[in-house]
Write a structure and sequence with these properties.
Length: about 240
């Protein structure tokens, strides 16, 4: 919840776009004098200490879609543009304490239905903290993790991590969360899903190393890189 003290660490990876769940409000972001200042940023939430921040460091500009539903917390559809490339980004921190039945993956399931017209087979990215994994599926629920993954696959949208490392949902070899920062409590709950056209341009996926990152966060960053010839687009998702 003090991103201003951690920004320089993640910025060494030169992200074009950075998604930060559990991010403090921009009014609190007093960057160091030598820190790189974002080209554009958005922030969503009700707690100024802990919301969802989206930052551009690659000359990309953000515009929230007009059908954004703030009741789906926090899942934000954003049109991302620069001179060469436009795409739809869903920045995600799935955690709605006011909708206990659908608190985590249920929010994403609702969002897929609500935004069905802009979640397409082209130029679409969903990235962030899903707070979910197949290991917690309740089979009778139509909004469990596996069914959300299936819904996205029907739209031609796939997890970059699972494609790149040839992993199976629920059997991931690389944790993204160490609960309470304990190495013996590893889980994979953070994801970057992209449309099939972007999968073809995927060049690398990296999950942060526990020994380095645990002093900064219980979540490890996910660094996903695409090659568009004219620009190497790198999206990063990390929690505070």
């Amino acid at each position: 919840m003090v991103f201003r003290k951690k920004a320089d660490i993640i910025l060494t990876h030169k992200p074009d776009i950075l998604i930060i769940p559990e991010c403090e409000h921009p009014d609190k972001l007093k960057f160091r004098s030598n820190s790189e200042i974002p080209d554009d940023l958005l922030w969503f939430g009700t707690n100024f200490n802990k919301g969802l921040g989206i930052f551009s460091y690659g000359n990309f500009k953000f515009k929230t879609y007009t059908n954004y539903n703030s009741k789906l917390q926090i899942i934000v559809p954003i049109l991302v543009t620069n001179l060469n490339f436009n795409f739809t980004l869903f920045a995600i921190w799935a955690n709605n304490v006011n909708d206990s039945k659908y608190r985590y993956i249920g929010q994403i399931w609702k969002a897929i239905r609500h935004y069905k017209d802009i979640i397409t087979r082209q130029n679409t990215i969903l990235v962030g903290d899903f707070n979910s994994n197949t290991i917690w599926d309740k089979p009778k629920r139509i909004w469990n993790h596996s069914k959300v993954v299936h819904l996205l696959e029907q739209k031609g949208i796939h997890s970059t991590y699972h494609k790149y490392f040839k992993q199976i949902q629920g059997k991931e070899q690389h944790p993204t969360l160490y609960m309470y920062r304990h190495k013996d409590k590893p889980y994979h709950i953070d994801y970057c899903f992209v449309s099939e056209d972007l999968i073809k341009k995927l060049t690398s996926v990296e999950i942060g190393d526990y020994n380095f990152w645990i002093k900064y966060s219980d979540h490890m960053p996910i660094i996903t890189t695409f090659d568009f010839n004219f620009v190497s687009l790198k999206t990063e998702r990390t929690d505070e």
